[in-house]
């Protein structure tokens, strides 16, 4: 098998594995009603089905990224597949609240290992134009996967069972494991030791931070714990000879802008993905399936545009493409914030979604590229971990902000309008980060 062909298989492994993570992050949005009915869950308990996953996903991300650096990408990737596949099986087979919450937490650990490791494998495998193209596909998957997951979740919840959305991960995980044994190079990792104190403080700090956002009680004490432990973690990383998150990652202007921008961008988008299907079901009378299908204008445009990102990057540069993508997303979200039931689906939702799809297709890949820009092999896993931390934490923060904003208003439509205006504000700050941090940082290295 020639090299190009082998790399095609590697890209397939990376993208399918990443899609699995995205599927289970978004499928909950359209399956929550059925899950609550089947397992007799109240609203507070139901929130933990999602929160347990977010908690361990966010908490273990830095550990997952660094583990691949030290113990070998393929070995750690395969461990993540086993954990994620087994967790998916247990979620699908859950018969009560404790079982599904524990299974979702276990599944989140697998996601925390897979997400940074897949990106690090990509960085190790591809160079030059091939890397630009591979990162473009990886970044595009972040948007396409989340949108398609809403459709898949609606199909399973309406026509089959919500459990099918988790059971389907089991054969996919087995197939990915087989392909990894066949096509991924067995690397030995790097010499060095895992910073156990840094690992412990980051785990507690990140988990507490996620809980302070998605938890249902004692959020303020959790936030205080998060600040204290993350402060200790940063001090530990500064003095450690083998840090789990090298602080030199934050000395590059382009990467700082990418981390900040991704945090804000995903905050706006995850909130949008969460509240828009509910609006369509409650205000336009859509079923869960139709609410998922209604995202096709965004998904299709996103997919088409994402395929052109590698070519457009060569023409306009990563930073220029990113500014254009964020700007279009901002315009589309502001347009949708004007929605009223009288405008209907096509004018009030579908057409703005086309603009958002254009922007999302142009933005997510450059965000990924900027987040791992100029990193050496030794830092690839750690940088990938930070990219995914900003993705996960930013999404959780933005979701919390937009949902809270919507809940301040008795009318769902008015709440939706104000929530999307807040999302537009987050996108504006992300745009400023791209203009004043990412673009100048990119020029410094040209």
From TrEMBL:
Membrane-topology descriptor: Multi-pass membrane protein
Single annotated GO MF: transmembrane transporter activity
Cell compartments where the protein resides: Cell membrane
Positions of transmembrane segments: 9-33, 45-64, 76-95, 101-123, 135-156, 217-235, 256-275, 287-307, 319-337, 343-364, 419-439
Domain of life of the organism encoding this protein: Bacteria
Keywords per UniProt: Cell membrane, Membrane, Transmembrane, Transmembrane helix, Transport
Start and end residues of each Major facilitator superfamily (MFS) profile domain: 10-442
Name of the featured protein: Drug H(+) antiporter
Record carries keyword Transmembrane helix: yes
């Amino acid at each position: 098998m020639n090299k190009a062909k082998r790399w095609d298989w590697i890209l397939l492994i990376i993208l399918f594995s990443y899609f699995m993570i995205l599927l289970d992050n978004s499928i909950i949005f359209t399956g929550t009603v059925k899950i609550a009915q089947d397992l007799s869950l109240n609203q507070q308990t139901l929130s933990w089905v999602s929160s347990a996953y977010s908690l361990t996903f966010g908490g273990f991300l830095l550990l997952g990224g660094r583990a691949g650096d030290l113990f070998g990408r393929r070995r750690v990737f395969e461990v993540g597949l086993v954990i994620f596949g087994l967790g998916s099986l247990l979620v699908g087979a859950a018969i009560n609240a404790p079982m599904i919450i524990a299974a979702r937490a276990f599944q989140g650990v697998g996601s925390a290992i897979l997400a940074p490791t897949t990106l690090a494998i990509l960085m190790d495998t591809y160079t030059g134009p091939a890397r630009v193209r591979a990162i473009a596909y990886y970044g595009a998957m972040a948007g396409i996967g989340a949108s398609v997951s809403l459709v898949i979740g609606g199909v399973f919840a309406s026509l089959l069972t919500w459990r099918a959305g988790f059971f389907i991960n089991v054969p996919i995980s087995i197939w990915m494991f087989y392909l990894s044994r066949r096509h991924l190079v067995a690397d030995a990792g790097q010499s060095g030791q895992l910073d156990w104190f840094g690992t412990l403080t980051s785990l507690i700090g990140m988990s507490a931070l996620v809980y302070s956002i998605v938890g249902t009680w004692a959020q303020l004490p959790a936030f205080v714990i998060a600040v204290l432990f993350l402060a200790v973690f940063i001090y530990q990383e500064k003095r450690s000879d083998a840090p789990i998150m090298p602080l030199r990652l934050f000395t590059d202007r382009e990467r700082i802008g990418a981390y900040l921008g991704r945090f804000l961008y995903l905050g706006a988008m995850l909130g949008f993905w969460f509240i828009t299907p509910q609006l369509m079901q409650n205000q336009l009378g859509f079923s869960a399936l139709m609410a998922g299908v209604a995202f096709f204008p965004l998904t299709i445009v996103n997919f088409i545009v994402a395929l052109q990102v590698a070519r457009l990057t060569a023409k306009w540069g990563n930073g220029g493409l990113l500014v254009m993508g964020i700007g279009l997303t901002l315009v589309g979200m502001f347009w949708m914030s004007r929605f009223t039931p009288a405008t209907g689906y096509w004018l009030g939702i579908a057409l703005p979604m086309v603009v958002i799809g254009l922007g999302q297709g142009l933005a997510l890949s450059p965000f990924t590229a900027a987040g791992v820009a100029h990193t050496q092999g030794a830092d690839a896993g750690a940088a990938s971990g930070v990219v995914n931390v900003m993705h996960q934490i930013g999404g959780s923060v933005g979701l919390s902000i937009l949902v809270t904003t919507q809940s301040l208003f008795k009318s769902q439509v008015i709440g939706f309008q104000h929530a999307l205006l807040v999302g537009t504000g987050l996108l504006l700050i992300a745009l400023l980060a791209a203009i004043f941090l990412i673009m100048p940082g990119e020029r410094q290295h040209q």
